[in-house]
Structures are given as C-alpha cells and as structure tokens.
Amino acid sequence: MASPTSASLAERFRDRLPLGPETPIVTLGEGSTPLLPAPRLSARLDLDVWLKWEGANPTGSFKDRGMTIALSKAVEEGRQAVVCASTGNTAASAAAYAARAGLPALVLQPAGAVALGKLAQARALGARVLEVRGSFDQALAAARQLTERGTHVLVNSLNPYRLEGQKTAAFEILEELGEPPAVLALPYGGGGNTRAYAMGFEEADAGLPRLVAVESSRRAETAASAIRISSPAHASEVEQALARTGGTVVQVSDEALLEAWRALAQEEGIFCEPASAAPVAGLAQAQLAKGTRVVCVITGHGLKDPEAVERLTPPPLTVDPDPDAIAAVA
Ligand code: F0G
Prior knowledge:
single chain; alpha/beta; 6-stranded mixed sheet
C-alpha cells in the first residue's frame, strides 16, 4: 500500500484524470514537488516569488507528470511502442516510463543539440536513440509522420494525455497556497506546459493566475537547448490561454537567462538547467506591481546539463592537501 506521501500523481488526482478503474498505472513516484519561497529573489525584485521545483521529479523534469499518464494509457490501449522527438527531457522521461511499462521507446533528437545528462539518461534507460540530422522541429515532424504508420504511439505533448498529467502541477500549487498566485511564470518552448497549467487552473475553478510564458528572444539558437524550438507546436492554443488569463509572452536574452540561472543557484540553492531559469529572467520584464505573488515553474534539474556549468562557472583550483595552501586561496 502506498503511503500518502509516496502516492503517484495518478492516484492523488485520479478523479480529475482520464483514468478508469482498470487503467494500469505506470508510475515512478512523480509529482508532489516542492513549492519553495525564494526570499532573496523576492527582496531583490520586490515581489513575492515562489519556485515550483519540478527538477524534483523522478527523471529530473516536469515531463514525468505527463509521461505517467501517457504510458498508462498506452498500456491500457495495448500499444506496442512509443516514439518522441525531443530536446532531451521528453526523451529521458519517455525512456524511463517506457522501461517501467515494459515497452520499447524510440527517441529522435536533434544531432549534437541535446545536453549530456539527458542523452545519458535516454541511453542508460534503454531507449533506441536516433540523432536526427536537423532541428527539433524537423525531428518532431518525422516522429508525427512515423506514427501515421501505426507502429508507435507519439508521447510528445501533442498526445493529449501528456497535458492531462501536466495540469496536476496547478492542482498542487492551489493545494499549497490555498488560492492561485497572481502570476504564474514558466518557460515557453513548444507551449504544451503553458496549455497544461491553463487547463489545470481552469478545471480547478478557483480563479486564474496571469500566465507569463517566457521564451528566448533567439528561439532557434538559444544556449538553453531545452527550448531551442523554432515554431511552437501549441502556439495558437497558448495565445488563447494567455488571452483568457490576461497573460502575456515575454522574450528574454540568453544573457538575462543565464544571469537568472546563476541567481537561482547561488541565491536560492536551486540548481536548474538553463531553460528553467527563463521565468525568473522574465520577471524583470513583466512590469509587475510591488509585492505581486508569482510562482515560477522551474522545469528541469541542473545535473541534466553539466556542460552549461563548465561554460558558465570558474573551474575549481587544484591545491596540495596543506591547510596553509588551502587557507591562502579559500
Ligand atoms: N523547460 C524544460 C526543461 C524543457 O525541457 C522544456 C521542453 C520546456 C521547459 C518547455 O516546455 O515545450 O511545454 O513549452 N522540452 C521538450 C523536450 C521540448 O523535448 O524535452 P514546453
């Protein structure tokens, strides 16, 4: 018997998910992630900032919320294999949940553009990893075409079960705060997650936060490889969701994004991957009133992208095991 704290997201929110009594739940213990106050960022930005720490999910990103439902339904429907195109996190999550379900996973990644930790995950978890000569957008088009042959079920966020699972993050925020925050800020890549939060808050019917979807000003070339996506698959639905919530898209430079990444790590102790710092970078530009309560969704773990750390932080010094030498440079 699962204790309440280890309950899967599917068990916790079963009545609000498209699950029947017979649906086999494919879970790794996702969801129930921390919502952390950010006192130093709050003081510096003159806002009341909270961080929804989605790097605490089993594979280190928010994708697990959707993948548990997508794989549960794939098993229920008797599907034989899954496929996704990915900048890395969807691939890692699909690989893990497919392994858990006993199904093969095929992942298509833009060649040379996926962070090392994510690639390691997909490989270790036994997915068939193909590096596509082309962009994420081209890999996604290929994945969609492949699924038309009927051999694989697509587990990108175009699979509606993915969004159903991801909407549960909104339920958790409502549980913790007792009401919606004034603003919810999150990275905007393909836009599936923005849609999922809008769905979650709308279904909960407890009021809507303004959604601030933060994208890179250089979508096709950003250093934040997770959101290196030229044309968001959910663009028109995101636009509608933002209109319904009085929200907006904000664009940030890579410099601002990486500065926010450093601040999250060094001021708040949250080591995320670069793309996940986008909402914090976006706050400075969103022109919010003093004291506004904002939840920033921190989507992925920093261990996913060790090369970013290599590029962005000074290397450690090497010293002899001698206290004088150590004290001299400490
Ligand atoms: N943050 C991270 C860490 C991501 O990996 C992604 C998307 C996003 C934000 C953007 O979310 O697409 O729903 O707007 N990653 C996808 C992937 C593209 O393949 O892992 P979105």
